[in-house]
Amino acid sequence: MDGPGLVRRGAAAVLAAALCGWLSTLAPSAGREEPVAVQVVRELPKPKPKPKPKPKPKPKPEPPPVPDVDCARAKCVALTFDDGPVPGTAELLDVLDARGVRATFFVVGENAAEHPELVRREHLAGHEVGNHSYTHADLGAASKRRVVSELRRTQEAVRAATGVTPVLLRPPYGSMSGTLTREARRMGLSQVLWSVDPLDWSERDSGSVERRVVEGVRPGAVVLMHDIHGSTVDAVPDIIDRLRDDGYVFVTVSQLFGGRLAPGEEYVESKSGQSQGLP
Ligand SMILES: [Zn+2]
């Protein structure tokens, strides 16, 4: 075999080997994955996750509706309690609750700030909450600046506890002045004094407190008491029972005056029951 023949055979062998290699890429072989027909499926939109039901907000506690009492005809009386709240006020609230009686609390602002839960309880039980200054100050003798501070801080303490801004002011000691009247009017506060004073702060005897209240009450009376004295709290159940037996209806101060109190004005008692010719 000559040289060119050898070259030709060699070239043919290389070609065959190359062809074999090419063919082997076409043949299925172990370990190589079969081509898989891919079916294109349009993805369905995922159902939106249902929004979790929001927990319903708890209904805000509200005081019971104001009973429909016409104090121009009924024998109404307003029991008022000053100087609290103190822990003993809770016992008085139990007594009033048990008898279904509404009263008015003239709170000292610093006590209200210390016991907001009691002020809130007073409000939610349907009692009226009024302003009695922040530090039990003699507002009639105080400067304008002091008057404003005493009244405003108490308004804020009651509002923080109840969400309601007082419209009634009882000046401590019944001490008033032109300055106080102007500032009370500016803050929307009517000034509420009283017509029956059992002197419960001086004589801590529940029997005499009860007697003085029951003997002193006339239709339309505003009774001054203090929930800071246990002797007064002890007198309240019998006071309520005896006055109720005598036909009295217990109302808040605003109810007693038919909701017609003007800011800055002074109120001592109302003319309740007069249209019936009651005494
Ligand atoms: Zn007082």
Protein topology:
Layout: H1 3-26, E1 76-82, H2 89-99, E2 104-107, H3 109-114, H4 116-124, E3 128-131, H5 144-162, E4 168-169, H6 178-186, E5 190-192, H7 206-216, E6 221-226, H8 230-245, E7 249-250, H9 253-256, E8 266-267
Parallel strand pairs: 1-2, 1-6, 1-7, 2-3, 4-5, 5-8
Give a quick precis of the structure.
This protein has nine helices and eight strands. It is an alpha/beta fold and 279 residues long.
Verbal overview:
The protein has helices at residues 3-26, 89-99, 109-114, 116-124, 144-162, 178-186, 206-216, 230-245, 253-256, and strands at residues 76-82, 104-107, 128-131, 168-169, 190-192, 221-226, 249-250, 266-267. It is of the alpha/beta class and 279 residues long. The strands form 2 sheets. Strands 1, 2, 3, 6 and 7 form a 5-stranded parallel sheet that branches. Strands 4-5-8 form a 3-stranded parallel sheet, with helices on one face. α2 links the parallel β1 (76-82) and β2. It starts with a helix and ends in a 12-residue tail after the last strand. The model is unreliable at 14-31 (pLDDT under 50). Zinc ion (ZN) is lined by residues 82-83, 132, 136, 172.
How would you sum up the major sheet?
Answer: 5 strands, parallel
Q: On the 0-100 scale, what is the average pLDDT?
A: 88
**What spatial form do the alpha-carbon principal axes imply?**
globular
The rounded Rg comes to: 43 Å
Number of helices: 9
- Report the sheet-strand fraction: 5-15%
What fraction, in percent, of the residue positions are helical? 25-40%
Secondary structure class reads: alpha/beta
Bound molecules: zinc ion
Number of E-state strands: 8
Question: For the terminal residues, how far apart are their CA atoms?
Answer: 156 Å
Q: Which blocks of ≥5 consecutive residues have pLDDT under 50?
A: 14-31
Query: Strand-and-helix sequence, N→C?
Result: HEHEHHEHEHEHEHEHE
